[in-house]
């Protein structure tokens, strides 16, 4: 995990490139059976075929994040899109030992991308 601001910015840029600019057809299909979603830690982006980034989040287990009742609100707004038009891009993160740094990393990514369904974007420190 990065230890200073420039390393954190560089890591954020790598993640943004992977989740925001990967071709849509290389993103994982997002369906309610969750079979295509990996059970690993990562930062993920819900992407729309033409509208681009919709939502960005981080989790210790992607499959659990989407299959838990906690994310029921996510499906409420996803239901208005056709399944073929919505996919998930994932950037695995292996270092979960420093929650403060991960929160800062997520904040940098959210400020840079401003996805419409992220209700609260953390302020810059």
Q: What this model shows, in words?
A:
It is a single chain. The chain is an alpha+beta fold and 125 residues long. The chain has a single domain (5-113), classed as GIY-YIG endonuclease, CATH 3.40.1440. It contains four helices and four strands. The chain has a four-stranded antiparallel sheet. β2 (42-48) and β3 (52-59) form a beta hairpin. The protein is globular. The mean pLDDT is 81.
Can you give keywords for this protein?
about 120 residues; GIY-YIG endonuclease; 4-stranded antiparallel sheet
Structure annotation, total helices: 4
- Supply the CATH architecture: 3-Layer(aba) Sandwich
Task: Calculate Rg over CA atoms.
Answer: 14 Å
**Helical coverage, percent range:** 25-40%
| Structural classification | alpha+beta
Q: Can you count the beta strands?
A: 4
N- and C-termini, Cα separation: 18 Å
Which segments are poorly predicted (pLDDT under 50) over 5 or more consecutive residues? Answer: none
The helix-strand sequence is: HEEEHHEH
Task: Outline the fold blueprint.
Blueprint: H1 5-20, E1 28-29, E2 42-48, E3 52-59, H2 62-67, H3 72-78, E4 86-92, H4 99-113
Antiparallel strand pairs: 1-4, 2-3, 2-4
Helix pairs in contact: 1-4
Summarize the structure.
The chain contains four helices and four strands.
């Amino acid at each position: 995990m990065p230890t200073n601001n420039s390393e954190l910015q560089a890591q954020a840029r790598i993640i943004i490139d992977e989740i925001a600019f990967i071709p849509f057809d290389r993103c994982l299909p997002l369906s309610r059976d969750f079979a295509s979603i990996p059970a690993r830690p990562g930062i993920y982006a819900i992407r729309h075929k033409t509208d681009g980034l919709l939502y960005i989040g981080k989790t210790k287990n992607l499959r659990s994040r989407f299959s838990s009742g906690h994310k029921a609100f996510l499906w409420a707004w996803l239901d208005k899109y056709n399944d073929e038009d919505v996919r998930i891009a994932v950037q695995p993160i292996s270092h979960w030992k420093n929650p403060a740094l991960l929160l800062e990393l997520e904040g940098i990514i959210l400020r840079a991308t401003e996805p419409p369904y992220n209700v609260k974007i953390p302020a810059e420190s």
